[in-house]
Amino acid sequence: MSSLSRELVFLILQFLEEEKFKETVHRLEQESGFFFNMKYFEEKALAGEWDEVEKYLSGFTKVDDNRYSMKIFFEIRKQKYLEALDRHDRAKAVEILVKDLKVFSTFNEELYKEITLLLTMENFRQNEQLSKYGDTKSARSIMLVELKKLIEANPLFREKLVFPTLKASRLRTLINQSLNWQHQLCKNPRANPDIKTLFTDHSCSPPNGARAPTPVTLPVAAVAKSSTYAPLGAHGGPFPPAAAAAAANANALAGWLPNANHSSSVQPAVIAASASSLPVPQNQVSVLKHPRTPDTLGMTEYGSSDHEQLMKRLRSTQSVDEVTYPSPSQQASWSHDDLPRSVACTIHQGSNVTSMDFHPSHHTLLTVGCSNGEISLWEVGMRERLVSKPFKIWDLAACSVTFQASIVKDSSMSVSRVAWSPDGNLIGVAFTKHLVHLHAYQGSNDLRQHLEIDAHVGGVNDLAFSHPNKKLCVVTCGDDKLIKVWDLAGSKLFNFEGHEAPVYSVCPHQKENIQFIFSTAVDGKIKAWLYDNMGSRVDYDAPGQWCTTMLYSADGSRLFSCGTSKDGDSFLVEWNESEGKIKRTYSGFRKNANGVVQFDTTRNRFLAVGDDSQIKFWHMDNTNILTSTEAEGGLPNLPRLRFNKEGNLLVVTTADNGFKVLANANGLRTLRVMEARSYEASRTPLEMKVSSSAIGASIGPVVSKVERVDSPARPTPSLNGVELMTRGIEKPRSLEHVSDKTKPWELTEIVDPTHCRTVTMPDNLESASKVARLLYTNSGVGVLALGTNGVQKLWKWNRSEQNPSGKATATIAPQLWQPNSGLLMTNDVPESSEGAVPCIALSKNDSYVMSACGGKVSLFNMMTFKVMTTFMAPPPASTFLAFHPQDNNIIAIGMDDSAIHIYNVRVDEVKTKLKGHQKRISGLAFSTSLNILVSSGADAQLFFWNTDSWEKIKSVALPLPSGKTPQARWNVFGSGCHKNLRLRCRIAPSAYISPASSNSQTVHPVVVAGHPQEANQIAVGLSNGAVKVIEPSEAERKWGIHVPVDNGTENGRTATSSTTNTSEQLQR
């Protein structure tokens, strides 16, 4: 089908949708295969109309088209099968099994057999993999999430998930334009043409009384439900229905009137008159050639000349109707790859991130505000925190008595907003109590106090910069229902009153030389203000009538708002400024949001919203969701996000007190350049000592990157106009002005419990024994301990107000987790276990744990604690275990006899044996990105194995002191091995073992584990069976580093060091 024919189908689809021919619309979608209506597909799937679901899908793909299609059909038929079983309709289940699911048996016979066995169960939830199956409604919702991902990834659906961007009633507009053209070609055009049919070309009757050939007399109104047509006059046509034009004028006049309630629909309902015998003005042809902006003004006049100018600027000139859709010929303009969706890095902030903003010209410089009042400056290209400023009142005496009383009553303080000034020289910070801080940024890590303002009574909810009269100012709003404008000296220039509820956000903007401010309040009211103290110019309701934020596109031509209602319904809309009406409403939000969604715009093209632990993207011209990403997981329910000014980087908050940096291809290149420059700069003043073994030469990319050692050197290039200052250029005035990575630190002895935070794992089990192995779950929410008696214990942290991320922490005690059955995860322990080497490993998704204590290897289900299987009975005994990172069914097992078994759990067989070591295996580590397994043995040998062929690549001898056994548990891949690692901190047992609990000096640490994400958190297993989680104190935050305090006082910890070490480090 030609391109124009394809476009015609889209025009017909729009026409049918507007005319409410619902069934016909979807039949045409299916038969043409041009547009897959995800919303319709979801509705039918959630309703369980499986026949219609498959019928609709069949227009776009078949079961055996590709693996994505096969998986889509399998998930649908599996859900239909499980629902029949849940209804105890065995006959229907058997029918589905035979007719629908049988086709998949040729691809996976084992799976088909497993599905068949469900018929024999009273409740299929007895199957371990289906134990979490809830009710039908929730199961369908979960299935839909998976189906949407599969459909979006399926190449057969490419360019079929987004409907073209069309103006309303585009087909009728084209017909009207055609009639216009035909009327212009008439030799003797009449003032009131009689249009009775579309079946033949229009021609006015000759003036001498002769009649033109009689056309087919079928009026337009007879072939369509014209009551829903938009007024054609809006498109320059000569035949506007009179009633429609009147309705349009009435709506335009009412658009921006105070207290007007507006519909959120894109087009108002219009009643069209009959299309026949409609009057047409004599000058209509000239109007068609030179369309003019309507003279109606949709705002209340206040008699101000500035206001009149503003209204002129806000009126949008009608544009020529155009149609665009994602065809191959237009893909050069934009693509999904323009969106920053690849996770470049994850950065731990240490406190809950509440606001972020990128520098306007240095596109990798990010300022971050936190819930504890701290602000930080990050160079995300180098993953480096340049500055950290804890909250401090700069001049309490200058603050109001009200604020002084409130801070005495409750000293907690959170950042509500951080924002860069347009020139990048200032950072504005709004706090949840009264205050606004302005920091002057001088480059590099030089951030100085500039101004403190006691701005509002209560919280300061938002802050922005503006330029009234070409003078940089700060606009703030707060709980006191006021909007205020301040100059950079702290003088209040304007005070806007009129809101009846706390003001939630402000959006200053400029149209040519007219400047104004939009503001939103928590009662859903939106107001606009000029800088004249004459009151609000408009007053209308935001969708949802609760908390809303407004933003303009980068070029200032389009206005958007995003917010949430008290009922949890979220709205993202574009506004028609000239009428104060909603132009389009974007769909795709989760219902019942617990909070307020946040959004941002970029490149005059895309919108991004944090919703449902995802980042959702829209194209500005299409109301359907473009795509979404979970950013590899770990996002909070309603993540905050921010684009940089180029749109190639996007930061999003994480649930564990940090943020992720996402990038597109250009953004990744920028970050790589920054990282390379940082690395080269770090090498210059410091001789790097890297293992000189033959690994690098023979393995190639295995040891591909050397982690730089902390150095006071700073990179010197000028990036985006901001020069990064180095120590070689200017020595810091004091240690307070040096970033963490450049400070000399002292070896710290922690001996007092007050210098760290400790929590003891609760244990009500009688099976206490010495902890033999200890590890964190991969998600970081639990700790797993294996005792010498073979019993494993699992502690988990729950999500709560005190611990919203649910991650392991030393501030809250976890729960000793057990299933309702009361089962324990108990290993097979031989009678004579002397000399046994306990070993344990977790699957990547924390679903299974595998362990052994001298006996058989046991595989446990982490939810039910049931033993899934046992294997590899001694002798020889297992000494180390490791799951394959891509396949939980593949396990590497190190043996006491020096062999390594590659075992497939599903088929219960050893696939191959790796031989080369001379003594027992002491460590195994899979690469997560390379096809390599590294093994270490008691023979002081490292072996590298190819995981495709399981052939040995290389062996390396390790020069170790006698009696020491290597373990391949460090990160060999991508970080290198440093010989010059330095000791930062020693933690004495007295800091975490109380004398009362030890009763004697016999209790001592026997095993330690590091948190997978929190670099400064460790878990320690003791000889008496106790397990403790230890973190630095809240004041210190890091082991062995003295965090400077603004007043210059030290933190008071005991420290031992030599001046020789300190001076030596400074020289390096």
From TrEMBL:
**Quick one: where's region Disordered?**
1043-1068
Annotated WD repeats reside at 453-496, 914-955
Q: In which residue ranges is the amino acid composition biased (Polar residues)?
A: 1048-1068
Record keywords: Repeat, WD repeat
Domain (CTLH) spans 34-92
**UniProt key word Disulfide bond:** no
Source species, domain of life: Eukaryota
PANTHER family listed in its UniProt record: TOPLESS-RELATED PROTEIN 1-RELATED, TOPLESS-RELATED PROTEIN 2
The protein's name is CTLH domain-containing protein
Tell me which species this is from: Hibiscus sabdariffa (roselle)
The opening ranks of the lineage are:
Eukaryota, Viridiplantae, Streptophyta, Embryophyta, Tracheophyta
